[in-house]
């Protein structure tokens, strides 16, 4: 049964959305790199940037599609060289997450973006993991890592990357697939995902952000992923929607990202409400918050302001975020109790 909260008026929604405990399941840590930190790290590491100032860099954040964003995103990540750089980036994100009542986060990282520049795999993973462990100890935020393969590169490159990461296997819980979607279908990565499955990694893939519903089918059937990242284009295929609903496959939806990358013209045209009405396990996430105009709470706030969503939808989205996570059942139950308590307090 869906919960409803008729006693919570619409004016209380912004406070409720900010206060409610939540999980974030779709955040690229390189996409949390704020322009100020890009400049600080560039200076620290003696890396030359193509932009003269923070303002000039921010002014370049006007994207027409996924690729136009990725070009700038990879350029920004070029300032990351040492273990401390990766720690500092992730720590900045995790502090923000804690302030936004994020109890649990599953963080994507793109090792190939760094190893291709000669950065050791150990620097990437140890730096991120140190920040994740520190978040547990100092902020009470549970944080896990998901290693993503860049789909514009070859499957052999992905396989080599996986082998390189294997000595550090204990530090990440899953594998994902990101970067340029169109022209790089999931089945291109069938072997590497099969290997990840043998290794006991949890599996996710970006599909149906810009790509067709067929990519979502193949992410499920060929890669055997447990969650679909984005997936907003599933509504074009009723049989797919039925499958996603029947099998409770979560979608990690990123509303501000979708508008910035022109997947939807405006937030008011976003299909999040339809996804929920279709019985899909949709969640709200920030994707690349430093580039897309806001962190997790901003995604919730702007989306609820633009769409006819109420406190019942807020509850469903937050609850979905915990249920769709790769955390263990006891943690999920504890977080959902805290969610229920927050909703009890709002009148
Ligand atoms: O939204 C995204 N889509 C695909 N790849 C990405 N890498 C960072 N953000 C994204
Ligand atoms: Zn993404």
TrEMBL record:
GO terms for molecular function: adenine deaminase activity; zinc ion binding. Substrate binds at residue 288. Its EC number is 3.5.4.2. It comes from Caldimonas brevitalea. Keywords: Hydrolase, Metal-binding, Nucleotide metabolism, Zinc. It is an enzyme of class 3 (hydrolase). It catalyses: adenine + H2O + H(+) = hypoxanthine + NH4(+). This is Adenine deaminase. Catalyzes the hydrolytic deamination of adenine to hypoxanthine. Plays an important role in the purine salvage pathway and in nitrogen catabolism. It comes from the Bacteria. Belongs to the metallo-dependent hydrolases superfamily. Adenosine and AMP deaminases family. Adenine deaminase type 2 subfamily. InterPro entries: A_deaminase_dom, ADE, Ado/ade_deaminase, Metal_Hydrolase. Zn(2+) binds at residues 26, 28, 206, 287. Binds 1 zinc ion per subunit.
């Amino acid at each position: 049964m869906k919960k409803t909260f008729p006693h919570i008026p619409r004016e209380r929604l912004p406070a409720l959305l900010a206060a409610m405990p939540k999980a974030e399941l779709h955040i690229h840590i390189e996409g949390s790199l704020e322009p100020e930190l890009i400049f600080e790290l560039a200076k620290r590491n003696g890396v030359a940037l193509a932009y003269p100032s923070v303002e000039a860099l921010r002014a370049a954040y006007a994207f027409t599609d996924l690729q136009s964003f990725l070009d700038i995103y990879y350029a920004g990540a070029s300032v990351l060289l040492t273990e401390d750089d990766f720690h500092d980036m992730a720590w900045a994100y995790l502090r923000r997450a804690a302030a936004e009542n994020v109890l649990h986060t599953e963080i994507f990282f793109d090792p190939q973006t760094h190893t291709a520049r000669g950065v050791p795999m150990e620097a990437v993973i140890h730096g991120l993991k140190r920040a994740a462990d520190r978040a547990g100890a100092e902020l009470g935020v549970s944080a896990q890592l998901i290693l993503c393969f860049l789909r514009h590169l070859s499957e052999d490159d992905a396989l080599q990357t996986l082998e390189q990461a294997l000595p550090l296997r204990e530090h990440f819980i899953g594998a994902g697939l990101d970067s340029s979607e169109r022209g790089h279908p999931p089945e291109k990565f069938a072997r590497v995902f099969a290997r990840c499955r043998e290794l006991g990694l949890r599996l996710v893939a970006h599909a149906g952000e810009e790509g067709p519903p067929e990519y979502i089918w193949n992410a499920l059937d060929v890669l055997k992923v447990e969650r679909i990242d984005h997936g907003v284009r599933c509504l074009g295929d009723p049989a797919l929607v039925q499958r996603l609903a029947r099998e409770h496959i979560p979608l990690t939806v990123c509303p501000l990202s979708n508008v910035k990358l022109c997947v939807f013209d405006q937030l008011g045209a976003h299909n999040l409400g339809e996804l929920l009405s279709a019985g899909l396990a949709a969640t709200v996430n920030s994707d690349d918050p430093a580039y897309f105009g806001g962190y997790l709470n901003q995604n919730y706030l702007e989306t609820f302001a633009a769409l006819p969503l109420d406190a019942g939808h807020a509850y469903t989205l937050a609850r979905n975020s915990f249920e769709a996570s790769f955390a263990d059942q006891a943690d999920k139950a504890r977080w959902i109790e805290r969610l229920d308590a927050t909703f009890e307090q709002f009148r």
